[in-house]
Each structure stands twice: as structure tokens, then as C-alpha cells.
Specification:
Length: 341
């Protein structure tokens, strides 16, 4: 029998614990650094004598548009003073310290992953995947930990639920793509990421989910192949659901791109690790057939001689020429996508 899941050795487990602690610390520091950063600048307040209270001066949005700059936003009297509050210089210092400390963790992570076969054979060749995301992928989403890519998706909370905005009801269909309309009222269902309900234990790992969201963001901004795929998905979703809100459209497209990427990482990663891959992973919600992995920092000539890629394509019955068309496609897309930015 083939082993789909490999046990870790004690050394590997210790190594993994050590490095994940650094990764989590990196994001904890980042969160604090961002909060402090927001307090560094001089803040402006409005003090109203009539109301006897002080509140932040509007900086943007509707409040700023309707404000004449002279009257109180609450009572409308001209009894206001603009008050500037200079932050304590320690905040600026703290911010700089935190940023420096945060950045200092990146080379530590790099030391840990640079000789890892998943890094130098695959992740380092994907546009948008840097040291931090790479560390996450190698530790939390090590392909040997998951029998199937579906189980990896589920661990990351990337599966979907179906919401009827008319009935305000959530459906959990087993097979996405079959149900597009509400069985009760016929309204087009909103496909969305499952929401965390109070008091209920979640099935996924919240940290992994947050990290996948970051991967999606990075691809949408700085990816190559996956950015092209993101735009392609957006177009196709929009064509199918013209009424979709821009936010839903972005989130849906991003989630799909991340799923495809994880499928690639899982499949190619298992090739690297010498682990068996089961049949092709499920087709994603009728949007596409099987998309083979693309190591988009490489060039097509390098890929032609990639033994792992050849083995994968053979498994799926795809010829190298057919595969290279995918490269042509995203390189063309890249040209189209770029000037829009
Ligand atoms: Zn007032
Ligand atoms: Zn309904």
C-alpha cells in the first residue's frame, strides 16, 4: 500500500515547533507594530464648548464632506476648537524598534528554510511567495501532512458555504457548483467563505486561514501566473454572476486562486518529497479543468527539462506543447494586466 501521509521524525517535529514559534512571533510583532504606527502621527480633535466633549476631527468619508470646518458636527454651534495632540516621542521610537525586530526575524526564517527541498525546488520559484509565506507553507501546510489537497483546503477554511440573501439562510452543499439558486425562493446564492459562529468550534485552523488570505492578497498584487489567474477568475465569475458585489468578486477570485496554488504546491511538493499523488484533484467549481503547476519565476526552456513537471504532465495525459500554451497565456495576460495598475 502506498503511504499518503508520512510520519514526522522527532527531529523534524522539534525543528517545526521552533520555526513556527518564530513565524507566529513575526505576525504578533507586525500586528503591534501596525497599531503603534497608527498612533505615531499627530492627531487632531474637535473640542466643542457647547457639547463639552472632544472627538476626532473627520479625516475622510461622508463626515468630512458634510463638515464646513467651523461648526460642531454634533450641535452645529460655532463653539469649537481644533486641538492637536502630539504623540509622546517614545511611540516613534517604539515603532522603529518593533519594525527592526520584525524585520530581523526574516533572515532567521530564511536560514531555516533555505536548504529545504520544498523551498529551493518549488516555492522559491513562485512569484509572490517570499520567506515568510514560504515558512508557513513548509511548516503548517507540509504536503506530507495531507492525504489529499481537499483536506489541505479544509484545514485552511477555504471551502465555501452558500447564502441566500433573500431567505437569509446558509446552505452547506456537499458538492459546490451544482446549486446556484436557492431551493426555496430561487434567488441566486452567494458563495462565501464560512463564517465563524460564536461558541462554535471551527473545523479549520484560523492562523492557516489568515495566512491563505495573505497569500491571495500577495498574488493579486504582485503575482505573475497567479495574478493572471486571479483576473481570469474575476472575469469568469462576473460573467456568471453579473450582480456580484466588487468585494465578493475579489474575495471569491482570490480564494479560488489560492486553492489552485495550494493544489499545485501539494502535487508538485509531493513529487519533490517522493510521495504518491492520488488522481487529479477535483475540478474547482466548474470554472476550469485541471490546471498544471506553473513555476512562474522560471522560463519555459527551464521547464521543458524539469523532470518532475514531465512526470506530472504524463500522469495527467498533457503534452509539453499543450502545457506551454498555458505559459503563453499568462505571459500575454501579464502584459494586459500590468498597464491597468
Ligand atoms: Zn457641539
Ligand atoms: Zn432563498
Amino acid at each position: 500500500m502506498q503511504t499518503f501521509r508520512r510520519r514526522m521524525s522527532i527531529d523534524e517535529m522539534i525543528e517545526r515547533m521552533r520555526i513556527t514559534a518564530v513565524l507566529r512571533t513575526y505576525y504578533d510583532l507586525q500586528e503591534t507594530r501596525i497599531s503603534v504606527e497608527n498612533r505615531v502621527n499627530t492627531r487632531e480633535f474637535i473640542f466643542c464648548e457647547t457639547c463639552g466633549i472632544m472627538y476626532p476631527k473627520p479625516k475622510r468619508g461622508r463626515a468630512l464632506i458634510r463638515w464646513d470646518g467651523k461648526t460642531c458636527l454634533i450641535c452645529g454651534e460655532k463653539t469649537i476648537h481644533i486641538i492637536e495632540i502630539e504623540p509622546n516621542p517614545i511611540l516613534e521610537e517604539t515603532y522603529k524598534d518593533l519594525l527592526k525586530r520584525e524585520k530581523s526575524l526574516i533572515p532567521v526564517m530564511y536560514e531555516q528554510i533555505k536548504d529545504h527541498p520544498l523551498w529551493f525546488n518549488y516555492l522559491a520559484h513562485i512569484q509572490g511567495i517570499g520567506v515568510v509565506l514560504g515558512t508557513f507553507l513548509i511548516t503548517y501546510l507540509h504536503p506530507a501532512r495531507f492525504r489529499t489537497v481537499s483536506s489541505m483546503w479544509k484545514y485552511c477554511g477555504l471551502h465555501v458555504e452558500f447564502y441566500c440573501p433573500n431567505c437569509k439562510f446558509v446552505y452547506q452543499f456537499g458538492k459546490p457548483g451544482i446549486h446556484e439558486r436557492c431551493p426555496k425562493c430561487g434567488t441566486l446564492l452567494i458563495v462565501r467563505a464560512p463564517k465563524r459562529k460564536k461558541g462554535e468550534k471551527v473545523e479549520w485552523n484560523p492562523f492557516a486561514r489568515a495566512m491563505c488570505w495573505r497569500i491571495g492578497e500577495t498574488f493579486a498584487k504582485t503575482g505573475k501566473f497567479y495574478k493572471a489567474l486571479y483576473y481570469e477568475f474575476k472575469q469568469r465569475i462576473k460573467a456568471k454572476k453579473p450582480d456580484i458585489t466588487p468585494k465578493h468578486l475579489r474575495e471569491d477570485a482570490k480564494r479560488r486562486v489560492v486553492k489552485v496554488f495550494l493544489a499545485h504546491y501539494w502535487e508538485y511538493g509531493r513529487e519533490i518529497l517522493g510521495l504518491p499523488t492520488r488522481r487529479p484533484y477535483p475540478i474547482i467549481k466548474g470554472l476550469d479543468s485541471y490546471i498544471p503547476p506553473v513555476l512562474d519565476k522560471k522560463n519555459p526552456d527551464e521547464v521543458k527539462t524539469d523532470e518532475r513537471m514531465k512526470a506530472l504532465l504524463m500522469k495527467h495525459g498533457i503534452s509539453m506543447n499543450e502545457y506551454l500554451k498555458l505559459w503563453d497565456w499568462f505571459r500575454e495576460m501579464e502584459i494586459k494586466v500590468k498597464p491597468a495598475k
